[in-house]
């Protein structure tokens, strides 16, 4: 009876619907995150000269929502 247990199939990288080599390597997410962590605050400092603090906060929230919306919409189109 112990041999009747079905083990999940472990897929190799590129073994799913996408061709091999089309996945994003994990370190790419780290690099993109690091770039945005440095560029974001530098643009905010420049914006403080023209926009008040509350306006900068809303701009950051709106731009993050826009980027997240575009990213998830692209991912859902890719899955369909």
Summary of the model, kept short:
This protein is mostly helical. The chain has helices at 26-47, 53-79.
Structure description:
There is one protein chain. The protein is mainly alpha-helical. It has a domain at 26-80. It contains two helices and no strands. The chain has helices at 26-47, 53-79. The longest helix has 27 residues, at 53-79. It is elongated and about 65 Å long. The chain starts with 25 loop residues before the first helix and ends with a helix. The model has no long low-confidence stretch (mean pLDDT 78).
Q: Characteristics of this structure?
A:
2 helices, single chain, 80 residues, mainly alpha
Largest sheet: none
Proportion of residues in helical segments:
55-70%
DSSP strand count: 0
Structure annotation, total helices? 2
The whole-angstrom Rg is 21 Å
Distance between the termini: 40 Å
SSE series: HH
The unreliable regions are: none
Task: Give the DSSP E fraction (strand runs of 2 or more residues).
Answer: under 5%
Q: Regarding quaternary structure, how should these chains be classified?
A: single chain
Write the layout of secondary structure elements.
Blueprint: H1 26-47, H2 53-79
